[in-house]
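Hi P.,

Sorry for the delay on this. The queue was packed all week, but I finally got your sequence through. Input first:
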Amino acid sequence: MNTSRTAFSALRFSRLFLLLISSLLMNLAHAEDAVTAPAADKPADITPESIEKGRTLYRRLCLRCHGPEMVGGNNAFDLRTFPQDQHARFVNSVTNGKRAMPPWKGIISDEEISHLWSYVASRGGKS
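Then the structure:
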C-alpha cells in the first residue's frame, strides 16, 4: 500500500512538472510575439525626405499588391484608410505580416519601415 501511494505521488508530481514546463514554453512562445520592432516605439518625423524614400520603397515592395494609389487590389488592404494614429499596428503588420501579406521581418530594416510609414501616413505625400 505504501508503494502505490509513492507511485501515485510520483505520478502527480510528474503531471504538475509537465504542466509547469508546458506553461513556461507557451509563455516564451507568446513573449516573442509581444515584442514589437524598435520602429514601433515612436514614429519618426514625417519629412519630405522620408516620404520620398518611402515612395521609392513602396514602388519597389508594395505596389504590386497595394496598387499605385495604395488602393487595396488583390484582396490587399486599402492603405489610404490606414489610421494615422496606429503607427505600432502598421509596424507590426509590415514586420510580421497579416492575412495574405507576407512578413518583411529580416528583409527590410526598421528605418525602411519608418519611411514606408511616412509615405502611407501622409497618404502618398498628399496630406
